[in-house]
Amino acid sequence: MTMDDISSSDSCLQERRKKSVIPWTSNDDEKLLNAIKKYGKENWKSVADCIPNKTRKQCRERYYNCLSDGIAKKPWSKEEDQMLMDLQKILGNKWTEMSKSFQGRTPNSLKNRFFSHLHPEYRKKLRENKVNRTPDDKSEKNETKPPKGPSQKSAFVRVKSSKYEIM
């Protein structure tokens, strides 16, 4: 191990120790924006040095997820919520891919909106059976079991996918 490796390792340890769960204040945000003006969006180490108790990663994520120009700070519309639910059904949890369809919404804001507001509603509607099944779904469960035999030792059951439509 060389001296460079040791100093690099010490730097990583200091970075971890410095990281804590201290909420961002408006003063921190102002310091962050001023440091970015001074050092740019590529030099996060110098930017983080200007803000006590914040790491490079925390500074970068705070800027790109909350403070960057073009981020929508307006309330979510019903149309956006519906589009998010529809895209999540199609794409799964590919938030970056979904964000291309939204003006001013970051992948992180989509994920947070889905799991904090929409996902619980979706689960509640499923529990209350307020979900319409598509006409091609004939039964409550469309299951077929794999053939039993020595060559088929899978513990999984094959399930035909069902399509749901929320009212």
TrEMBL record:
Gene3D superfamilies: Homeodomain-like. Residues 125-167 are annotated as: Disordered. Keywords: DNA-binding, Nucleus, Transcription, Transcription regulation. The keyword Cell wall biogenesis/degradation does not apply. One of its GO terms (cellular component) is snRNA-activating protein complex. It comes from the Eukaryota. Residues 125-146 have a biased composition (Basic and acidic residues). InterPro entries: Homeodomain-like_sf (IPR009057), Myb-like_DNA-bd (IPR051575), Myb_dom (IPR017930), SANT/Myb (IPR001005), SANT_dom (IPR017884). This is Myb-like DNA-binding domain containing protein. It comes from Entamoeba histolytica.
